[in-house]
Amino acid sequence: MKLSFSAEDEQFRTEVADWLAANLTGEFAKLRFRGGPGDEHSFPEERKRWEQKLAEGGWTCVGWPKEHGGRGCSIEQQVIFFEEYARAGAPGRVGHIGEGLAGPTLIAFGTPEQQAKYLPGILAGTELWCQGYSEPGAGSDLANVKTKARFDAERNKWIINGQKVWTSLAHESDYCFVIARTDPDSVAHKGLGFFLVKMDQPGVDVRPIEQITGTSEFNEVFFDDAECDPGDIVGEPGDGWKVAMGLLGFERGVSTLGQQMQFQNELDEVIRVARENGKYRDPAIRQRIAQAHAELKIMRYNSLRMLSGQSGSDGSLQGEALIYKLFWSTWHRSLGELAIDVCGQQGQLLEAAPYELTRLQSLFLFVRSDTIYGGSNQIQRNIIAERGLEMPREPKWT
């Protein structure tokens, strides 16, 4: 991955920046720097309208192939888009799961009928998705899912029963992609299916989980005889693991650069507060800020190296991708600790109910979860050891 951009790329950068400057105005001006981690509850309706505004300008799904409605942007241009989006303070994307995960997975593994049914709504920013992977007994251990799917020939439907947890923005979503066990006698990664489930139907119950921040962007989702059309399984019964792993490759893909620009915005806010309250004069604080800056640059360069080794349209990535989740989650947790230390004693106080958290207070509380969700740090280290370094597998205790 080259670390410089062509004249054409820089012209594209100007186009992105100009469009964002012209459109993050009026009703959307208040969305600047909102909707990130710990703040995803903010302005949900306005952010949904923002998705449609992006679609009108042709700025959703910029990396999708042109034949599927995207811009077909190069990796370099996708990097530029995400950098400029975050630099402008544009809001957290409520359409991220559809655009970054569901859509690319359907392009890679879906049928033409599934693509025609689901991709247009994602492109238009009118249909939102959530991810049905984690369960109470299957968080980092995805292969331990207990949710079941059976085909009812009389109703000509897949019938889904089970529970998912930590489902981001499920209460705002139109669809959920669900990993469920199609073979009740199967174990581990065998006998799984990957289903596309409509949320607004009898048998789907979304219950918010109130977090330490006082917000509820995560949810439990219960499936009680929820229905799924026979054409809404991606691949064949038993292919669920392959499709699920392909999707996780997309999760470690180019959108990671957008995540890092969000991190840069948060670090900039930490620096602003340190200058404002004088904490920047503390040598220890200055050293921690410098370390956070350097490690964020390292994260970016490794991501560019990771993306340059992307080996196919199925989301597969080279070994560099294995360290990404461990690195960013640990870094982000440390940033939250730095943020609250920069705020000082005032950062540990709230004036009165309803106790509205500041941006940095919310950051500190939310990032405590970063090293747990999406695969805990312990699981990530096992993955690096076993898959990346080919060390002996951890013994399975019974």
TrEMBL record:
Ranges of residues in domain Acyl-CoA oxidase/dehydrogenase middle: 130-225
InterPro entries (UniProt xref): Acyl-CoA_Oxase/DH_mid-dom, Acyl-CoA_Oxase/DH_mid-dom_sf, AcylCo_DH-like_C, AcylCo_DH/oxidase_C, AcylCoA_DH/ox_N, AcylCoA_DH/ox_N_sf, AcylCoA_DH/oxidase_NM_dom_sf, Mycobact_Acyl-CoA_DH
Domain Acyl-CoA dehydrogenase/oxidase N-terminal: 7-125
Cofactor: FAD
Residue ranges of domain Acyl-CoA dehydrogenase/oxidase C-terminal in the record: 238-388
Keywords: FAD, Flavoprotein, Oxidoreductase
Keyword Flavoprotein in record: yes
Highest taxon above the source species: Bacteria
SUPFAM superfamilies, sorted: Acyl-CoA dehydrogenase C-terminal domain-like, Acyl-CoA dehydrogenase NM domain-like
GO CC annotations on file: plasma membrane
A Pfam family: Acyl-CoA_dh_M
Keyword Transcription regulation belongs to the record: no
Gene Ontology MF, one: oxidoreductase activity, acting on the CH-CH group of donors
Family named by the database record: Belongs to the acyl-CoA dehydrogenase family.
Protein name: Acyl-CoA dehydrogenase
Lineage, broadest ranks: Bacteria, Pseudomonadati, Pseudomonadota, Gammaproteobacteria, Oceanospirillales
